């Protein structure tokens, strides 16, 4: 195994890259680069910006870096390096293009030196590699925020579980398990409007209704997780994303709901933050 690998996280508006010490399972913080990306740009503009950020991070490491792991949003053909995003307001110009070959060429590397994985899977991969789920052989992960990300980990590799759109309640899971549900539910129960989940948390303890909303969220999360746990048989559940920071408010209802269905497993909140995807991407090179 190469002792140093570049971990990269590509988002809808940015790219973050840092060299990872594979033995310590940690980022070299002085190597981290974060750049804004114009996701509406041309193929040449986007791939040049990506390659420049990667080259800058590799140049800061002081160590030879010959391998790259990238956390890439879907839809994407991860085996062949071809972008398949369309109509999502980001990277439309890249549709059908072998972007990994283009980036590798700009960096003077062989295409085989770059591996990619779905970004939700990289979050879980990172938390298993060097975070909250270190030492576990089977895990599931959820990112709870503006959207719903789900992943499962076994046999050394995480994969996107892609459960955001499964039927749930009167709609799909993401409509009940993301930040917009909180804002909508608060308005339904109080007639008032708040911009985001943190503003709701700040209303405690003056507004007990906020506690009730978090309890309801925990119950919904348990209902969603029961079939996921039964199917994946994980040893641990990792929760990430901004909503997970309020775990103390919905955790009791979640654990109670899982226990009622004999599905209670250890629950960990993610500890790596944005670093999880970088570590997870780099860990694609663990043989």
From TrEMBL:
InterPro entries xref list: ATPase_NBD, ROK
Q: Which terms are listed as keywords in the entry? A: Kinase, Transferase
GO terms (molecular function) for this protein are: kinase activity
Matching entries from Pfam families are given as: ROK
Question: Gene3D superfamilies this protein is in?
Answer: 3.30.420.40
Membrane spanning stretches: none
Q: What is this protein called?
A: Glucokinase
Which species? Pontibacter chinhatensis
| Classification lineage | Bacteria, Pseudomonadati, Bacteroidota, Cytophagia, Cytophagales
